[in-house]
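Q: What residues go here?
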């Protein structure tokens, strides 16, 4: 059975004065584990991996693995738009002790479907670690087809995908084509319940940053087949899922954590910028309604 099941948090990277707030990151990890999160994903989109230097990326992965100390799996984000760079980051994650690597489709380059397959196959052959593909065309300008995912799933250590198209038609096609033991994780909180009911294994969640207890309970209920409980949680936290995208991710999640007193500063790293007054006020209203502030 795949270890990549349940609610994994796409954890934010807190900054203070432009530098990584290491104590803040450690505190967030403890908050996550104490509230039932099933796994930690550092250096993903929500962790602002695109603006981390290689040294910072290495440090966030190492610090996360050290702090977690084997209590839950760490699925480290290691993708890049360069195959060589992806191999380097993935190799580092393996050496640091990650349970697996989350590898995004190469952004900006716009490779063909054959190019995507060859990229992932090359990384898989270069580094002996479980790989989870990450398809998020809204961010990358490239969309990996269900047929290409199924082809990648035949490579020994490619064990799953973070499916972040928000398209249940696509998710169903991926599940239909791939082996039964291939982990299909939602990359969109609002589709997580539906995807698990189709045969998916969980979610890599933004909302888990601020409400890990509810997201882990949602996935526990869904995976156990307790639909009544799962629906109750889904509808209760649905407004919170939306609020995390009132502004470009991860800005709302970071600001929410600051308002909750979980990190000292919710400041993103440029070119990301702070929320405007209107989306901030709307998010605060949801956080109050949910009892988080």
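A:
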């Amino acid at each position: 059975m795949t270890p990549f099941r349940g609610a994994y948090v796409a954890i934010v990277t807190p900054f203070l004065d432009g530098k990584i707030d290491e104590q803040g990151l450690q505190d967030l990890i403890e908050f996550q584990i104490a509230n039932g999160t099933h796994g930690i994903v550092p250096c993903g989109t929500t962790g602002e991996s695109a603006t981390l230097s290689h040294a910072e990326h290495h440090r966030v992965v190492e610090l996360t693995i050290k702090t977690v100390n084997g209590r839950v799996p760490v699925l480290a984000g290691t993708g890049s738009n360069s195959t060589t760079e992806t191999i380097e980051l993935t190799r580092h994650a393996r050496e640091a002790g990650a349970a697996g690597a989350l590898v995004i489709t190469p952004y900006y380059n716009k490779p063909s479907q054959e190019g995507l397959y060859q990229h992932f196959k090359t990384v898989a052959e270069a580094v002996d670690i479980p790989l989870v593909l990450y398809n998020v065309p809204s961010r990358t300008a490239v969309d990996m087809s269900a047929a290409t995912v199924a082809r990648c799933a035949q490579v020994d250590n490619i064990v799953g995908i973070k499916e972040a198209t928000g398209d249940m038609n696509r998710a169903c096609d991926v599940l239909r084509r791939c082996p039964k033991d291939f982990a299909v994780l939602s990359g969109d909180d609002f589709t997580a319940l539906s995807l698990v009911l189709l045969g998916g294994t969980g979610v890599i969640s933004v909302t888990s940053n601020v409400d890990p207890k509810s997201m882990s309970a949602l996935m526990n209920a869904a995976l156990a087949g307790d639909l009544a409980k799962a629906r109750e949680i889904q509808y209760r936290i649905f407004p919170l899922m939306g609020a995390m995208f009132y502004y470009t991710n991860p800005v709302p999640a970071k600001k929410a954590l600051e308002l909750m007193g979980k990190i000292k500063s919710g400041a993103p790293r440029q070119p990301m910028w702070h929320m405007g007054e209107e989306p901030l006020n709307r998010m605060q209203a949801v956080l109050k309604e949910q009892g988080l502030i």
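A: Context that may help when evaluating the design: The first strand starts at residue 6 and ends at 10. Residues 6-227 form a domain with the TIM Barrel fold (CATH 3.20.20.70).
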